[in-house]
Q: What sequence folds into this?
């Protein structure tokens, strides 16, 4: 009985594999849509991250480089490192070399608190107060500020704006 | 024309005055269910032990479940639990009510609703002033909304209520997002969680952020900088 079950399940697996091979060989779109449905992510309201599930092992990094005559021993080009699994999740960087010098290092993948891998492109950087104040006197439709109470509203800018429009 | 009414301990401004009775009733129903200032609210009855969470309305359980989801997404910085263990949903209920109001007004053309300093629009181009945390009678700057960028929320370390605990981060944080719940929760979390939460939020969600530390130093994502420049290019008042 047990042998029979094992043989049947092996046959079933082989059938599935063969069907998958057939689909892959005969129909490119079918394969693509299949891939799309398997890159599931945990639900994350509002998240825009385009990062999809990260393979636990990846082939060696890809490089696009041209030989360089510079003396540093570094070839010019853009080099994408391997995805390395750390205790915090997968990490991958891209290094650009020009004239034998590293001109940029970009994190392609890091992980945030939840351990999801994310694309790094949206860090908040210091901005000068003078830059911000340029829009201080713009004509505004409404005012956003830390939550005011019903009493606090009376002295708020929104209150003044509401009176002007009433 | 603008219509102003009080609810949830703050003030709602809605411009133009669309579906006012429905919007007022909507906010009143959220207040009746979730206010811990009313001893007869459903959440107060859970707090005093006279109602079990399992027997609570689906609205309450859904709000609590969403708050717990945000707690895990923000590594515990945003939390629906007071230090004494009481469930306090004030950190998310206002935004949920604004979101529901947005659904009520979905087919009504251009509008702006402002609830205690948190803003949702119908998606039209609009300029939103942002108050100076060190002088609330002044605007620090303003930002341009439009298209999918419909929501702005600002949190401050000294704002009322106690849904920000153990604040060690920013004096004020403004988050622009496509949805008001995301904007409000993340603004709250970044104020409390500081730089780590700021970086985790800007890399994990599609948001623009302006953060001001207690010393007055400013930090902005590139999207926010663009939004400020767009507002600055508008004609000035008066």
A:
């Amino acid at each position: 009985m047990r042998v029979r079950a094992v043989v049947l399940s092996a046959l079933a697996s082989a059938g599935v594999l063969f069907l998958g091979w057939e689909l892959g060989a005969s129909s490119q779109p079918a394969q693509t849509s299949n891939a799309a449905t398997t890159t599931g992510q945990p639900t994350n309201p509002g998240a825009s991250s385009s990062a999809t599930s990260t393979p636990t092992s990846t082939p060696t990094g890809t490089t696009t480089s041209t030989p360089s005559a510079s003396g540093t021993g570094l070839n010019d080009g853009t080099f994408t490192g391997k995805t390395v699994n750390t205790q915090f999740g997968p990490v991958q960087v891209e290094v650009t070399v020009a004239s034998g010098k590293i001109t940029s290092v970009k994190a392609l993948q890091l992980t945030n608190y939840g351990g999801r891998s994310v694309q790094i492109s949206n860090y908040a950087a210091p901005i000068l107060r003078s830059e911000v104040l340029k829009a201080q006197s713009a004509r505004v439709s409404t005012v956003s500020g830390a939550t005011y109470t019903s009493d606090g509203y009376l002295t708020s800018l929104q209150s003044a704006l509401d009176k002007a429009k009433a | 024309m603008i219509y102003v009414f009080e609810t949830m301990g703050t003030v709602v401004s809605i411009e133009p005055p669309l579906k006012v009775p429905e919007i007022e009733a909507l906010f009143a129903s959220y207040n009746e269910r979730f206010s811990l200032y009313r001893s007869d609210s459903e959440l107060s009855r859970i707090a005093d032990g006279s109602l079990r969470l399992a027997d609570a309305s689906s609205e309450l359980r859904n709000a609590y479940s969403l708050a717990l989801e945000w707690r895990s997404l923000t590594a515990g910085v945003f939390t629906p639990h007071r230090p004494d263990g009481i469930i306090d949903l004030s950190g998310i209920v206002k935004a949920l009510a604004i979101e529901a109001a947005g659904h009520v007004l979905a087919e009504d053309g251009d509008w702006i609703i402002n609830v205690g300093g948190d803003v949702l629009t119908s998606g039209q181009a609009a300029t939103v002033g942002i108050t100076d945390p060190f002088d609330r009678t002044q605007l620090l700057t303003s930002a341009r909304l439009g298209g999918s960028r419909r929501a702005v929320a600002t949190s401050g370390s000294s704002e009322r209520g106690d849904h920000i605990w153990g604040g060690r981060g920013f004096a004020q944080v403004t988050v622009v997002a496509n949805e008001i719940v995301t904007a409000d929760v993340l603004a709250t979390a970044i104020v409390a969680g500081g730089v780590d939460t700021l970086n985790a939020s800007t890399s994990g969600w599609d948001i623009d952020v302006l953060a001001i530390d207690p010393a007055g130093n400013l930090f902005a994502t590139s999207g926010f900088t663009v939004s400020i420049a767009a507002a600055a290019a508008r004609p000035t008042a008066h």
Residues 77 and 210 of chain B are 19 Å apart (CA to CA). Chain B has one domain: 3-232. Confidence is low (pLDDT under 50) at residues 160-167 of chain B.
